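QA checklist item 7 of 12: single-chain prediction sanity check.
[x] sequence parsed
[x] length recorded as 156
[x] structure emitted
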Amino acid sequence: MIFDSWDTPFNEGTLLLVSAVWGGDEWSVSYPNGKSYHLQIPTGSRAILTVTLFHLETESVYELRFPSASAFRLLDEGGLLHIWSETQTSHNCFKVKGHAWSEESPVTFAMGSDDGFSFFITTDDDCVEVVCQHPPEIIFMQKLQSNIKFNSHCAT
């Protein structure tokens, strides 16, 4: 297993997965009998995969747009124990090649990255792995303001 760096604005700190959406701005399917179906999807993004993250330290929301992802998986971080046992970085985002998924599904990797790496985004609870030829476009969406609630019950 080989690891490589992938620099992002949220490489360190607490990262939370907000959403992962597969599908671009259109969908279609065709059948041998000549029937086909086409649907325009008003997403505003041409990305085939869009991952939205919240970075606690900067209180910022980021959107990662993967325009040509050939596959992705979203797992509980515990489902990748074979990677965590060999990981060579403490960053939230990194690249890996030569791991179990690439060996189980070589066609997926042949259609994806030219160098055989997949992109990993890790949080305390989740892990997103994306097979894609190029890193995503990373877009700062907004800074969130925290809401502080005080307990109105006082101990007597």
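[x] summary fact logged: The chain has one domain: 2-142.
[ ] second reviewer sign-off
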